[in-house]
Amino acid sequence: MYNIPHLDIPPLDHVSARVQLPGSKSISNRVLLLCALSSGKTQVHDLLDSDDTKVMLNALDQLGCVIERSSSSLHITGIGERKPNPSVLHEIFLGNAGTAMRPLCAALALSGVQAHLTGIARMYERPIQDLVDALKQIGADIEYLGNPGFPPLMIKPSAIHINGPIRVRGDVSSQFLTALLLALPLVSEHQAIEVEVDGVLISKPYVQITLNLLENFGVKVINHDWASFTIAKGSKYLAPKEIYVEADASSASYFIAASALSNGSEPLRIEGLGLNSIQGDIRFVQAAQSMGVRIDAGPNWLDIHPSRSNLQGIELDCNHIPDAAMTLCALALYAKGPTTLTNIASWRVKETDRIQAMVNECSKLGARVEFGEDWIRVFPIDPSNWKIASIHTYDDHRMAMCFALAAFNPDQVPVRIEDPRCVGKTFPQFFETLFSIAHASASHIPVICIDGPTASGKGTLANRVAQALGYAYLDSGALYRLSGLAATKAGIPLEISQEARIAQLIGQASIRFEGDLIWLNGEEVSEQIRTEQMGMNASQISSFKAVREALLDVQRNARQLPGLVADGRDMGSVIFPDSPLKIFLTADALTRAKRRHKQLISKGISANIDVLHSDLLARDERDMSRSQAPLKPSEDALLLDNTLMSIEESVNWVLEQWTKQTTLLKQQKG
Question: For residue 458, which of 209, 313, 315, 452 is within the disulfide window of CB 3.0 to 4.6 Å?
């Protein structure tokens, strides 16, 4: 997950291959609660790993569930009929997870549990009164600790009495009804229970997910045409031993749209989801098809064909796909004619007021947008009038994922997503997954080059800048060190007469980077290549023309979405001459020697500053005078002498230069 203030996405061209999506949030948290309420142990496969499921798991752990984790699944032993200790107060933090707050509120109120339910500030703006009112009808003791009708809540043990139908509003959020249906079997021992819905029930497909899952756990609920529901007398939850969580249909909508907007010719296959899904948001497929997207489907897969030229605006009642409907707004920006989405009042009580948020951010991109209390109309953007925009995400995961699709715009302008970490709520690896299948012109993928002499700190600086921007990092020096190490292990002398053999060896070598670890031919060699001798060897063979040519493609192929920071001796002058920002980092030789001395001593390696100083001067002379790519600044490089600067000051200086470059691009687009 990108844990950075903002993420700049370059213009994207097409997607390819196939993608396996994470499990459904709606199914995941329902399954977790049902496992907890059941008697017995359930093995859960393909559970979504996200902020919402983490807070639910933490809550269940506090309440006494036994949760065992393996590499691919969870084993959950439910509380079943075990009686809680009513004198124990459970402090339960639920973040902004409505799929945890609402069902847990109902289940705890009917279980004799004393609990204090809290969350983040936005949770305290999300209504829960309709659910609380329904629970109070049967004697639940629930107190508002802040604004009436909203969390935080205090739940106390109470005597539950059911003397007739329980009434609950269904026209604000289906989660209130779902919460009741999940909890009421706990008090159905002596009688059948009737739940009546006031108003027209919205988001029926989400209630259908609840009904299907209840049946998997041994509870049959009769649905009386969505107006009322009957839970049989004596209903009990039984662990199904094993259950699989479907891939998330809401998350699939972003990849359906991405493939539809692709300039490629091949379809994208989405695996783990088919048209027989129990999730209501699978009906997004029909909505996309009505806009002109070509989709083929099988029992557990979808093939999405590039369809941008066929996209047409539509008018659609989105009551059945309230979450996935947001993705239709993104498609609407590319369609012919306006798209009108109606019956979306529930957008206003989600993670943010999504109608207003969508209006604000579509407008930034250049779209005309009209809206009302429960509808929105989005007009397409002229292909040459897209604006470079910084998209505010309102701590709403769906805003971030929807507007990532703006990067496919035909005007080939980048888009900035503020607070990309918000996708952690449901899809922590969303951007990584998108970048794994998306392709962009190399000229659109930015590369920041940081060149400089040995021990100038360019590696540390480049790595820190890459982390700050969410970019990949290329340590070109490590490649030359690896080349020297490979030759040494193969018994090849590091001599100019052997350069062809060394180059051939490099071409056959398996090189792999995993975070701070480096692998050569299956062996982890991170520490081996960091010795002073390996540095000297790297400096020596870097002057071999055949070796440099062998590593050229390796280095250029490191260019990847969303961008790259590369450090070395000739990143800006030879490897990436089109880099929009080139830094030549330096410091006086004595300062560099002191830094290297401190580094070696910290690792328990004895060193002499005078010797290090002499070695650095000799290496500088050799690097600057070599015939192949001598060490010198590119003509358009910015010089940074960090002799008197801390690493933090150097990082901030580079980031300031990068901000100037991106600001200039905005001005040029105008």
Answer: 452
Q: How far from the centroid of its chain's Cα atoms is residue 395's Cα?
A: 13
Task: Read off φ and ψ for residue 141, nearest 5 degrees.
Answer: -105, 100
| Domain topology for 6-22+247-441 | UDP-n-acetylglucosamine1-carboxyvinyl-transferase; Chain (3.65.10)
Look up the CATH superfamily of 472-561.
Answer: P-loop containing nucleotide triphosphate hydrolases (3.40.50.300)
CA–CA dist 522, 518 (Å, integer) = 10
Per-residue pLDDT, 397 = 96
For position 393, what pLDDT does the model report? Answer: 98
Determine contact, residues 634/573, Cβ cutoff 8 Å: yes
Residue 532 has pLDDT above 80, yes or no: no
pLDDT tens column, 476-501: 989 999 999 999 999 999 999 999 99
Task: Give the whole-angstrom CA distance, residue 633 versus residue 626.
Answer: 14
Q: Is the predicted pLDDT of residue 670 greater than 60, yes or no? A: no
Topology adopted by domain 445-470+563-599+631-670: Rossmann fold (3.40.50)
Q: Where are the domains of the chain?
A: 6-22+247-441, 25-244, 445-470+563-599+631-670, 472-561
Of 323, 475, 570, 615, catalytic: 323
SS (H, E, C) 234-274: CCCCECCCEEECCECHHHHHHHHHHHHCCCCCCCEEEECCC
Superfamily of domain 25-244: Enolpyruvate transferase domain (3.65.10.10)
| Contact of 151 with 126, CB cutoff 8 Å | yes
What amino acid occupies position 571?
M
CA distance 355 to 568: 48
Rounded-to-integer distance, Cα 248 and Cα 1, Å = 18
Give yes or no: 553 in active site.
no
| CA contacts within 13 A on the Cβ side of 47 | 29
